[in-house]
Design goal:
Layout lengths: L1 E4 L8 E4 L10 E9 L2 H7 L17 E5 L5 E5 L11 E4 L4 E3 L6 H21 L7 E5 L4 H12 L4 E6 L2 H9 L4 E4 L4 H14 L3 E4 L3 H12 L8 E5 L12 H5 L3 E5 L7 H18 L4 E6 L3 H5 L6 E6 L4
Parallel strand pairs: 8-9, 8-11, 9-10, 11-12, 12-13, 14-15
Antiparallel strand pairs: 1-2, 3-4, 3-6, 3-15, 4-5, 5-7
Length: 320
């Protein structure tokens, strides 16, 4: 069969032949329709993600959409190594497959599944978001952040605040449901004032996709917001703004901030898969929006390094 193939961790995948997967006890073969090139997929393929570990060569892709032998269209996650999602066929445990809702386009489902799951899990499982609460999405201009804005609104958030550097992305976040936008291009002093104003007014949940300097300033502003500020559940989801922060211990001692992670490891795979199913159902009903860029499997090498903020590259398999 044809597949994207990682032959070296410092090189993009190539379009190549790879052995056919063979089902055995506890696995099924999935005819893959579409798979998104996500940040997690890229970092696992380069060996830099904390969950990486496959031996070379291997097919990249941790999730996708495809058909089972009986024709059911499913979303699947965590194929059996060395098989991945970016091949004509892959090998998956049946419990790692969920049926996608009727009427939901497979390309849209493949694009939304991973970033939408992260936002849904953060809001529902980790933050226990309640209707009427105020949510700050730190890093709302990328695909995951834009979905987080829509999901928070769908779940009943009373107010959604979106941050980001890209002016066009911030306008898109407002169009998708953000009540307030904050530019991260401000200097530290101006950004601290903007954060302080909103934390003083009351923020209940922070969904953080950036970490780095913006997270530092947000946490410090939250701690300084005063004794009357509400307890804050701060959910750390991504690190696009930096892998580390410098956080004075007094920030946590002097505030009601609950700092939590949300991702692979903070929840079991069964719960993450359940979150994905719930999110896809909501996406189908509520019409969540996410720009997609379909590319054929034959162009995997050229497409691998391409990135457009707020959009999702989705690989279409050669057999489709």
């Amino acid at each position: 069969m044809k597949a994207a193939l990682v032959q070296a961790l410092d090189q993009p995948p190539v379009y190549a032949d790879f052995p056919e997967p063979v089902a055995s006890a506890g696995t099924v073969v999935v005819d893959v329709v579409a798979a998104a090139i996500s940040h997690v997929t890229r970092s696992r393929a380069s060996g830099t993600h904390y969950s990486a570990g496959a031996s070379l060569p291997f097919v990249p892709g941790i999730d996708g959409v495809g058909r089972l032998a009986k024709g059911s269209m499913v979303y699947f996650v965590m194929p059996e190594a060395p098989f991945g999602a970016m091949a004509e066929r892959t090998l998956v445990a049946p419990q790692h497959c969920i049926r996608i809702p009727d009427g939901l386009d497979p390309v849209t489902a493949a694009a939304m599944a991973n970033p939408g799951m992260s936002a849904w899990a953060a809001c529902v499982e980790r933050a226990r978001l309640k209707p009427g609460e105020t949510v700050l999405v730190n890093g709302a201009t990328g695909a995951a952040g834009r979905l987080a804005v829509q999901i928070a609104r769908h779940l009943g958030a009373g107010k959604v605040i979106a941050t980001g550097r890209n002016p066009e992305g911030l306008r898109a976040a407002a169009d998708l449901g953000a009540d307030v936008t904050i530019s991260l291009d401000e200097d530290d002093e101006a950004l601290q004032r903007a954060f302080h104003q909103h934390f003083e007014a009351g923020i209940d949940v922070v969904i953080d996709y950036l970490w780095g300097r913006s997270a530092e300033l947000a946490l410090i502003a939250a701690a300084r917001a005063g004794e009357d500020a509400r307890p804050i559940r701060f959910l750390q989801v991504g690190a696009a703004g930096g892998a580390e922060i410098r956080l004075p211990g007094a920030v946590l001692r002097s505030s009601a901030i609950e700092l939590r992670g949300s991702g692979i490891g903070s929840l079991g795979l069964d719960r993450l898969l359940a979150c994905t199913g719930q999110m896809l159902q909501a996406a189908n009903q509520a019409g969540f929006r996410l720009a997609t860029q379909p590319v054929p499997l034959t162009e995997i090498t050229q497409a691998w390094s391409h990135h457009e903020a707020g959009s999702r590259l989705v690989v279409l398999m050669a057999t489709q």
